[in-house]
Each structure stands twice: as C-alpha cells, then as structure tokens.
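Q: What structure does this chain adopt?
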Amino acid sequence: MTTAPGQVSVGHQPPRHPLDPEPVRSTKARAVFALGLIGLLTGPFVGGVVPATVALALARQARREAYASGGFLTGAAWLRRGERLAWAGLVLVAVSVVAAVIFGVVHLAEAPTGHDFAPNMD
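A:
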C-alpha cells in the first residue's frame, strides 16, 4: 500500500485474525479514575484515604490485566489520571493529619498545666 504516487510504501500490517476480540476500554480504568477523584475531593477531610487506597490497588490489577490482554484492553490514560488523583488525595490526607497534629500540639502547649491555686496557697 502506498500513500501517494511516487512515495515510499507504508509498512504492511498483517490482517487481524477474525476471532481476535475488539479493543475495549477497561472498566477498572474508569473505576480507578472515579475512586481517585473521590479520594482527591475527600482527601482534606481524611476520608479520602480509603477510596485512594482502593484506587491504587485496582490500578495495579488493571495494569496487570491490560498487559496480559496483549493490547485489547485500553484506558491507560484514564488509569494514569486516576492514579495521579489518588496520590494527590493521599497527599491531602497526609497534609490534613500533619496540620491537625501540629494544631493539637500547639493547643496543648498553650493550655495551663496542673491546678491553678489561689495566691495565698502553699
């Protein structure tokens, strides 16, 4: 097959076998993206750790299945986006926890310790 008269021929691709499945988007890739988005949105409230962790575990399975399918499972872009969102959600969870600990320590340090006795008490 040539692209135009006088040009070099394009590499010949062998025809697909009739029993080969059609390439389809992985449903796990969509789930990873959705869970990553939920993890990002709920990350500052510390609730994002669960969906983000599930998204990362599911992403690992989806990558394994996509590799084993030999190219018939697509959705790598959705998978990458979902993983990035999940990691961002986990970072937000970590920032929220660190901020809460710092706030708690500062609040505890400002609180008076022991009993506040009257000035005429020994």
